[in-house]
């Protein structure tokens, strides 16, 4: 995978040859990377600090390392998808196959991304679409009906969403009051 990365970031054959040479020096601790401080600091300081202090001898490799090390790592996107999954695959709708639930999460996530392109995103009906999203502060000033509109529990919507027809059997769902939907 290292070579795939090198080829992607250095498409010019001369640059690719130079970065491969720099990597060989780095990985074998030869030439400018043979300094005892450089070798010791590999285990003693953060990678970003190490490249800042000792990477000048391999300028191309250093620039790539800085690009890769400066990327933020976060699980927020995964957490958001799991939240959507638990919203879709609830106690009332537990007969969904994992593949169907995965497809619905995929559609929901992509609709949320597409809705961000519209002018109505911040002012229209979709203003609560991204509840718990990147810029979520609080539910202050939001009526319960606005939050309730996010529900997918309506049988008509469920039938449309799942594409139920004559050949598929619709399972009855019993709500908290004991009535069948």
Secondary structure topology:
Elements: H1 2-9, H2 13-28, H3 36-44, H4 47-54, H5 59-69, H6 76-88, H7 98-115, H8 144-148, H9 155-162
Helix pairs in contact: 4-5, 6-7
What report would you give on this structure?
It contains nine helices and no strands. It is mostly helical. It folds into two domains: 2-69, no CATH class; 76-162, no CATH class. α4 packs antiparallel against α5 (59-69) and α6 packs across α7.
Number of distinct helices = 9
> How do the helices and strands follow one another from N- to C-terminus?
HHHHHHHHH
Shape assignment? elongated
Query: Would you report the number of β strands?
Result: 0
Largest sheet: none
Distance between the termini: 53 Å
Class derived from helix and strand content = mainly alpha
Mean pLDDT: 74
Strand content: under 5%
Q: Indicate the low-confidence ranges by residue numbers.
A: 132-139, 141-174
How many domains make up the coordinates? 2
Return Rg in Å. 26 Å
Q: What proportion of the residues is helical, as a percent range?
A: 40-55%
Which terms would index this structure?
181 residues, mainly alpha, 2 domains, 9 helices, elongated
Give a short overview.
The chain is mainly α and 181 residues long. The protein has helices at residues 2-9, 13-28, 36-44, 47-54, 59-69, 76-88, 98-115, 144-148, 155-162. It is built from 9 helices and no strands.
